[in-house]
């Protein structure tokens, strides 16, 4: 099991149930995290913050939905330092000036269809990480599904999950289920060891 190693976690406005679920998984686990469009960042933050603060993990965040700068700034807005997380940005290379950034923990890949490059770059970033325990987070499968053929994406996710499971790296895969092809979603149900389902919720 992942055990708490110290640190105070302020779960104000975050989903504490996610932290409780995370405390029951192992480093070789693969977690499918289902959310909606309206609560995606809250669910992502509720997943990442316990991993970073309670379990003192580093990791790689693969950005397929929004650019890395936007995500980093969103975490900074809620007072969370993500400088120890490596970001692989699949979005910003196609934007004029998108790769001219102030953050040294961002790596850019030219296109979301370069799935092999994403895997290799993630492995490299983990190899040079200075943290003993790490996670890899994909945000998100529904964004990758826009650019990649359904069968190819399903096979890639299987390879991706198994690659990190063998290395005892926790895999976290976000998706908005009603925007993911059925075969990809069913394969995620099959491949992933755990499910955190926070669906579409109303934010008051």
Give a verbal description of the structure.
The structure is a single chain. With 204 residues, the chain is an alpha/beta fold. Helix content is 39%, strand content 17%. The chain has one domain: Rossmann fold (3-Layer(aba) Sandwich). The chain is built from 7 helices and 7 strands. It has a 7-stranded parallel β-sheet with strand order 4-3-2-5-6-1-7, with helices on both faces. Helix 3 links the parallel strand 2 and strand 3. The protein is globular.
Topology:
Layout: H1 16-22, E1 30-34, H2 40-54, E2 58-63, H3 68-77, E3 85-89, E4 106-108, H4 115-127, E5 134-139, H5 141-147, H6 150-166, E6 170-175, H7 182-191, E7 194-197
Parallel strand pairs: 1-6, 1-7, 2-3, 2-5, 3-4, 5-6
Helix pairs in contact: 1-2, 6-7
Strand order of the largest sheet: 4-3-2-5-6-1-7
- Roughly how many Å apart are the termini? 34 Å
Shape: globular
Described by strand count, sense and barrel closure, the largest sheet is:
7 strands, parallel
Number of helices: 7
The structural class is: alpha/beta
Q: Name the helix and strand elements from N-terminus to C-terminus, one letter apiece.
A: HEHEHEEHEHHEHE
CATH class: Alpha Beta
Corresponding CATH superfamily? P-loop containing nucleotide triphosphate hydrolases
What would the CATH topology be? Answer: Rossmann fold
Rg from alpha-carbon coordinates:
16 Å
Residue runs with pLDDT of under 50 for 5 or more positions: 4-12
- Mean pLDDT metric: 89
Number of E-state strands: 7
Strand-residue proportion? 15-25%
Could you estimate the helical fraction of the residues in percent?
A: 25-40%
